[in-house]
From TrEMBL:
Name listed for the protein in its UniProt record: AFG1 family ATPase
Record has ATP-binding as a keyword: yes
Keyword Nucleotide-binding: yes
PANTHER family: AFG1-LIKE ATPASE, ATPASE N2B
InterPro entries named in the record: ATPase_AFG1-like (IPR005654), P-loop_NTPase (IPR027417)
Keywords of this entry: ATP-binding, Nucleotide-binding
Lineage: Bacteria, Pseudomonadati, Pseudomonadota, Alphaproteobacteria, Hyphomicrobiales
Biological source species: Maritalea mediterranea
């Protein structure tokens, strides 16, 4: 790593990509210390004598970070900057809900396998954790939130093994650990996981007065009408305001085994054309996966949705439903005013709901609301 993470952050502040904020700077200092510890741990392998004495390299793994605070304060942005900056082998950044869906899927596969056919007596957790331990040393979770009893009852056993193997966790959340799974069924059985989490991570509150995301979206229009230079420049301004004028980079997202390229993304914001997003064979689970990667969608050139675009119109309805349910923010350019956008009688009824949601999604109340933990029913039942 050519420069410290704090120096990297300060460069972004000096370049006016980020606004100076003392509370954010203190979190960055904690990230900077973790980066130093991780790199030292990566380089400092136990010698022969230590191995002979039964000392495990995992025992010396640094504690991770659990960062909580209100929506829009920059938690995810700082974690993503840290993740992209640090040179650590075997790192992964994932939405917490997505990670738990993968765990449940792995458990289901194990129980269907020959190894798992022992009248339920074989513990699937070692089978599930083994590939994680092998492939990941730094695991960064976005939106750490527990509201499902099956997750709650699983977490202590799961993370006991992950932490014992030296895995380092960084997590962002809207609530402190003690409020996870609050008022949940059989919560007393979940409390040991809270204790474990506080033992293995340093809990930090990002106490910032400003909702930066809402502030940036409120400063200017987010919907533009007409596919012309004025609309393009309007969306350019939205992008620049949200990302501090970063050029952005492409990113490839795995959608159910298929590679999907997002042409431009930075700081949790994605920019993409309607054609790529709604004329490709994508469904609600794909849109949900994308909504776990990006909090704001900037969509160029949404066309007039006539009967010739019936399939694309149906996908657009699915997309808006997903973004609305998740609380993701939307900026877009449209070929026509919202109430004139649809000309397809096959989707006219459904589009009335979409129209209502599009109008609400530009309101100050919606822009200030947090993201929601939305689950795909198919995903959980798989």
């Amino acid at each position: 790593m050519a420069q410290s993470f704090f120096a990297h952050y300060q460069k972004l502040v000096d370049g006016k990509v980020l606004k100076p904020d003392p509370a954010q700077a203190e979190i960055v200092r904690q990230f900077d210390e973790l980066a130093r510890q991780l790199q030292a741990h990566q380089q400092d392998k136990p010698n022969f004598f230590q191995r002979l004495m039964g000392q495990s390299h995992a025992d010396d793994a640094p504690d991770g970070l659990y960062i909580w605070g209100d929506v829009g304060r920059g938690k995810t942005m700082l974690m993503d900057l840290f993740f992209n900056h640090i040179e650590v082998e075997k790192k992964r950044r994932v939405h917490f809900h997505e990670f738990m869906a993968e765990v449940h899927e792995a458990i289901a596969e194990f129980r269907k396998s020959e190894k798992g056919k022992d009248n339920g007596r074989r513990d699937p957790i070692p089978h599930v954790t083994a590939p994680i331990i092998d492939e990941v040393k730094l695991l960064c979770f976005d939106e750490f939130h527990v509201n499902d009893i099956t997750d709650a009852m699983l977490l202590s056993r799961l993370f006991d093994q992950l932490f014992a193997a030296g895995l380092v966790v960084v997590a962002t959340s809207n609530v402190p650990p003690d409020r996870l799974y609050k008022n949940g069924l059989n919560r007393q059985l979940f409390v040991p996981f809270i204790d474990l989490l506080k033992q293995k991570t340093k809990v930090l509150q990002l106490d910032v007065d400003h909702d930066y995301r809402r502030e940036k979206l409120e400063e200017q229009p987010i919907y533009f009408f007409g596919h012309d230079e004025a609309s393009r420049k309007g969306l350019d301004r939205v992008w620049n305001n949200l990302t501090g004028r970063q050029a952005g980079e492409p990113e490839v997202i795995n959608l159910q085994g298929r590679s999907f390229e997002v042409p431009q993304q930075a700081l949790g914001v994605m920019r993409i054309g309607f054609k790529q997003l709604c004329e490709a064979p994508l469904g609600s689970r794909d849109y949900l996966r994308l909504s776990h990667h990006y909090h704001t969608f900037i969509i160029d050139e949404i066309p007039y949705l006539d009967r010739a675009r019936s399939d694309a119109a149906k996908r657009f309805i699915l997309l808006v439903d997903t973004l609305y349910d998740r609380g993701c923010k939307l900026a877009a350019s449209f070929a026509a005013p919202l109430e004139e956008l649809s000309g397809d009688d096959q989707t006219a009824f459904e589009f009335q709901r979409t129209l209502s949601r599009l109008m609400e999604m530009r309101s100050l109340e919606y822009l200030g609301a947090p993201l929601n933990d939305v689950e795909d029913a198919e995903e959980r039942s798989a």
